Amino acid sequence: MKKFIVTQVQLNEYVEKKKSEKIFYDILESLHKNVKFLNENVSHKKANQSVVEDYERKNLITPRVYEMLVKHKIINQKSEII
Amino acid sequence: MNEVKKNPRFWSGKYWRGHSISDTLKEIVEPDIVDVSSIQTHDILNSLVWESNEKIKIDIRKTLLMNAKRFIEFCDAENLTFDDIILTGSMANYNYNENSDMDVHVILDFNQISENKEFVGDFFRLKKALWSDRLPIQVKGYDVEMYFQDSAEPHHSSGTYSLVKDEWVRKPTKKIVNIDSANVQLKSADIMNAIEDLEGNRSEDNFMKKHEALKNKIKKLRQSGLDKSGEFSTENLVFKILRNTGYLEKMVSMKNDYLTQELSLNEFIN
Questions:
Q1: Can you name the residues that pair with B138 across neighbouring β-strands?
Q2: I need a labelling partner for B104 at 20 to 30 A (CA). Which of B69, B114, B121, B135 fits?
């Protein structure tokens, strides 16, 4: 059996990446729910903005999550929904 | 494993060597020491909020309506149709205390937002959390709790005042409420001890399962009390005691601590 040597830095990096991915997909799911369930009476954009702000409030938008959201054109540099 | 070590007596002895019996007994919440003063009722409505003729004070009504208006705008719900804006809960009743909130409910038909009521509930909870976080508003020293209520949702409170119409929807009666304090203390102590036990078992693998089970038990207990005998039911009063004494907050923080620990990595692996 092949042995792998993993350093603490690599492990932390891996855990951080997985956590960020989970948060990112959670946000996507919430945004998807807004599109799926909200009637036209309520602005989808504002509802989506609230989702992002709620994650910010909980300190879950880490630099990596922010990077992913910007990269996928969900928010702009000012954390506003595109 | 050694046969002796499988014996419960061995483990029991091992446990008690490290834990003093008197210390453990001290940690147990006895029913007698549960403070039930916060659930006692008053002879008059809160004089900071109500006039002597039981009409709401003008400045309070104006402030609460302004709060509701801003809250509706904040939630981007100004295009919706509202049935009423009410003040309810203990502040519209005789059972207020220093921990009471000004419970302001904005009543509307949730179908205007979505047919999925569970989604609407989550949607408003999120908005409310953002609102409370940014604007921790107090009126006369009491926190203002804004809440969107579906017009189809049954309402249990016996005191409901319409802030829009400036009149009682349901006036609370000054009836002598028969509170079974001893039973409230007994049931409260029982759950407090369960919460303390849970806190002591935070390192166990099935902690989350136990936490969820206890949370559901408390939730069901309160709901059954409300359904059966309303807001003065023993079960609802137990819930209030748990909230006022910080035990519910303790449950939330121990879950957060557990999750933080689970998601963190401190060990050095080489």
A1: B143
A2: B114
**Within a domain: B186:** yes
CA B110/CA B169 separation, integer angstroms:
21
Buried residues in B206-245 as b, exposed as e (16+ CB within 10 A):
ebeeebeebeeebeebbeebbeeeebbbbbbbbbbbbebb
| Tens-digit pLDDT profile for residues B156-172 | 777 899 999 999 999 98
Whether residue B211 is found in the same domain as residue B250? yes
Longest alpha-carbon distance in chain A: 61
Which of B136, B170, B204 lies at the terminal end of a domain, its last residue? B170
CB–CB of B265 and A54 under 8 A?
no
Nearest CA in chain A to B126: A54
Domain termination residue (choose one: B111, B137, B170)? B170
Interval A27-70: pLDDT, tens? 999 999 998 899 888 888 999 999 999 999 888 898 899 999 99
Subunit contact A41:B80, Cβ cutoff 8 A: yes
- Give domain status of residue B235, yes or no: yes
Give residue A14's Cα distance to chain centre: 16
Domain with B136 in it: what CATH number? 3.30.460
- ipTM of predicted complex: 0.78
- The pTM of this model reads 0.67
> Chain A: nearest CA to B269, how far in angstroms?
6
